[in-house]
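Tokens as discussed.
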């Protein structure tokens, strides 16, 4: 499949604003899909040309492509390029609709799903985790600690930690759902972890969750994860309005 649209066609009204740069690139590509300018199987211009067309860094383009890939809108073929996904039409439409939701509306819904699912995931992980799983979790936390001590946010390790818990459940569908949720949450993970005290607090609660998992204490793992996700949600949405996972008391 050849590239039908020149790179300049992706820029629309010109360079994107500096705030939420990659999200605006995602929105522009989805607008082109919705209008028919792009179709399943079309190849996107190379990363460098997209960066020039949008007037942004290649890192911003790379992040936009990563988000679109996680949402099933595009797919990367090694040695060939990035293409609009050729899955079922309803899958493609769902991916586009997902991406075109307003950022904060989507994030609010993501946090509600996390509140419902992730405490149960922690409980399941406590039941099913092997000693090797626990060792891997501790390795991830050590990498998070090192990143924070070097002045980083620990965001990548934070995401890896939650993904590992989902994987330990042994449920491929659950792993897929939560992977998609965390991909959509990625844009706000750094926001939550900007204050240095929040980075250490995140690390501390992760360690507490791992301790519960190591002891096979599903109830404690569930409580600690519920409190953790609720705390993140409250910081993102201090006005409230989020659905609360029923039945949890956030005491330990």
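Sequence:
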């Amino acid at each position: 499949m050849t590239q039908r649209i020149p790179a300049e066609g992706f820029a629309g009204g010109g360079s994107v604003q500096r705030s939420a740069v990659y999200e605006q690139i995602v929105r522009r590509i989805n607008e082109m899909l919705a209008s028919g300018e792009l179709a399943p199987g079309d190849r996107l211009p190379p990363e460098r040309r997209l960066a020039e067309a949008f007037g942004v860094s290649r890192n911003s383009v790379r992040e936009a492509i990563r988000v679109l890939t996680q949402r099933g809108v595009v797919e990367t073929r090694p040695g060939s390029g990035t293409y609009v996904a050729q899955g079922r039409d309803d899958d493609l439409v769902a991916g586009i609709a997902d991406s075109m939701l307003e950022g904060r509306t989507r994030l609010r819904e993501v946090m509600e799903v996390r509140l419902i699912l992730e405490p149960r995931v922690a409980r399941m992980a406590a039941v099913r985790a092997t000693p090797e799983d626990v060792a891997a979790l501790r390795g991830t936390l050590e990498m998070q600690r090192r990143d924070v001590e070097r002045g980083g946010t620990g965001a990548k390790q934070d995401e890896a930690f939650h993904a590992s818990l989902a994987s330990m459940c042994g449920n491929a569908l659950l792993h897929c759902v939560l992977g998609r949720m965390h991909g959509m949450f990625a844009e706000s993970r750094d926001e939550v972890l900007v204050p240095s005290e929040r980075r250490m607090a995140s690390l501390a609660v992760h360690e507490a969750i791992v301790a519960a998992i190591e002891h096979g204490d599903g109830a404690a793992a569930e409580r600690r994860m519920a409190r953790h996700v609720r705390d993140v949600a409250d910081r993102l949405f201090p006005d409230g309005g989020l659905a609360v996972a029923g039945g949890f008391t956030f005491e330990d």
